[in-house]
Amino acid sequence: ALHGGERLRVVERLPHGGAADDGAAILFVHGWACSAYGWRRNMGPVAESGYRALAPDLLGHGFSDKPLGDASRYGAVAMAAQLVEVLDALRVERALVVGHSMGAAVSLRLAAAHPDRVAGLVLAAPVGFGGVARTWWLRAVTPTVIEPLLAAVATRPLFALGLRMGYGRLDAPTERDVDEYWAPTADPNFVRALRRVAHAFDWAVGPQETFAHVRCPVHVLF
To answer: Pick from 76, 75, 124, 117: which is nearest to 98 by CA?
Structure first.
């Protein structure tokens, strides 16, 4: 539970025996329209290596709450602060943080604002190191007036198409993958929340002063 009253789902995978070596933890932060499920292939090997693996659903995503009030709750700085609350709630003093896409931008701001909580960063296809193509198009085709209609068009075939486009030629999404990404639409606020994240989040190159405040080792994967 966050200080603002919202609740976040966190998936946890513990090492064999139930305790991590020296309290070591790795926090996985997903990208836009994704969830903790995106880390399904990573958490097991990490736990087997002796680490406590944690993967939250960010606010507005997965099975976490999806408030439709203050849009600033969906900005990178606000989401970074929410991750601090997650670490506090789970009694994790310091973690290595792995972020993907939008989640990488959130992770970077977490490390800049709270260097004592982040042991290192792994940023995969990170937002903030270069402009993100077509975000202007996404905003243009989702004006506020159509938001109430979005839930009606968020069909399973549409999610399947989006996943196939996202996977490209690297792999093919399974039926289970489609089900997992589509499942949050059971909450009518899900697609509306995704639209608000798309509009509230800063997809541009991150400010240099943010980079300058990062003191931990950083590994970037493009």
So the answer is: 124
Count other Cβ atoms within 10 Å, centred on residue 105: 28
- In the block, tokens 């290595």 appear at 96
Alpha-carbon torsion (44, 222, 181, 73), positive or negative: positive
Q: Is 124 exposed, middle or buried (0-12, 13-18, 19+ CB in 10 A)?
A: middle
Q: Is 0.90 topped by the overall pTM?
A: yes
Sign of the CA dihedral with 148 first, then 154, 158, and 162 last: positive
Say what the pLDDT of residue 22 is: 62
For 127-166, the pLDDT digits (tens) are: 988 877 778 888 888 999 999 898 888 999 999 999 998 8
- The answer to whether the CB of 105 falls within 8 A of the CB of 121 is no
- Whether the CB-CB separation of 54 and 7 falls below 8 Å is answered with no
